UniProtKB/TrEMBL annotation:
GO terms classed as biological process: tRNA processing
Protein name as annotated: CCA tRNA nucleotidyltransferase
HD domain boundaries: 272-394
Nucleotidyltransferase as UniProt keyword: yes
Amino acid sequence: MLVGVTQTPALPSMDVLRQRAEHLWDALPAEVLDLAALFDGAGHEFALVGGPVRDAFLGRSSSDLDFATSARPNDTEALLRQWTRSTWDMGREFGTIGGRRGDLVVEITTFRADEYDGVTRKPVVAFGDSLDGDLARRDFTVNAMAVRLPSKEFVDLHGGLEDLGGGLLRTPVEAEVSFGDDPLRMMRAARFASQLGFEIEPVTFAAMSRLAERISMVSAERVRDELTKLLLGSHVRAGLAGLVDSGVAEHVLPELPALKLEVDEHHHHKDVYEHTLTVVEQAIDLETGPDGAVPAPDLILRLAALLHDIGKPPTKRHEPGGGVSFHHHEVVGAKMTRRRMKELRFDKDTIKAVSHLVELHLRFHGYVDARWSDSAVRRYVTDAGDQLERLHRLTRADVTTRNRRRAERLSFAYDDLEQRIADLREQEEIDSIRPDLDGNQIMEILGIGPGREVGMAYRHMLEVRMEHGPLPLERAREELLAWWKGQGS
């Protein structure tokens, strides 16, 4: 069975693709042809390769272009400097030199023939001598097409154009060989399923399943980057399903397939895994335009949706009467989220934001049971901090019940909470609540100097502010003095 989703609606037909193949490169910028002429004049092969070729057939343009050449890195750099003064070393040991001319950015890589040695986490680099060999070592046929320059000869040795028309991801050579050379290509298959809406061809998918364990030899940083690209795609459910169904997720994000073992407490969903995929999709639907509160695509929101229930498996308990509970799974899940994201080398700010959302994602349910006081609303906003808009969306996305009446009740309750927050914003500074008295005022009123007592008093006055809202100065002074008297001072 093929893995993936319905093909992207905009996918061109084979007739259109063949027509494009005849004239697609006529509009290449003159600067590119000038660069190609330099390499050709020096006796080197030079070709536009990979993603830019694929995207050109799909009607997508890019100012960043990838080229492959027979020239070695030092020769590439020397030729590139005749074309532009703006060059940089993007990884000389991997054969890649970059350059910019105006808005045009190019990456030029020496023909490659690298593979893993089966022990280390880095590929062993070997430079190749032909375009044909370079294309054979690329990840998928749709990325193994090229255009020789300056002759503008289209090269498609592995049926990439046909696979592009069929929306298929297939390796140029035997899948076991390709994935053995670079196990990260298994994650790329899932990533491209997410980005392009393509299906993973059955033989290729079967090889992913057999070699899934080899992904463990790839560095955490490279895995993180592929997972990030997958989550920022347009068909995220397909990409995640590819990782889980192939077994690759067991080695890079084991918390996700673990959810398949857990039926949710309401028995309204097949399992928590299916619920999670639905929450991810619904969270994506709640992202906003560029000027909105949570512009799409938003990695933090998508990660939080993906990980929000990972605390359920370790907290599952069978209750008397046949029920199932997951008490405090949000707290356990937040700790698991921090640990997994640290292992994947995410940055500290992203880890903090995602784990905070996971920890708070159930807070709203108390509002459904009993309408909160203004004090509780203030605490909700304060605890959410700069993640409030994402928390709004995560909480709404977490409603996947098929019970229409319950869904409407939850939606109405959250509408009411958001209106309460808006009303309080009009009355007071709810988004950055501070005590009515600052540290200097506290010391002056109490007649004390800096020290532990000032911090205690400040925290008390913050609680007063939360409970009662903004107070007149004299009332705040009375509250402080009453508290101070109660301390026995």
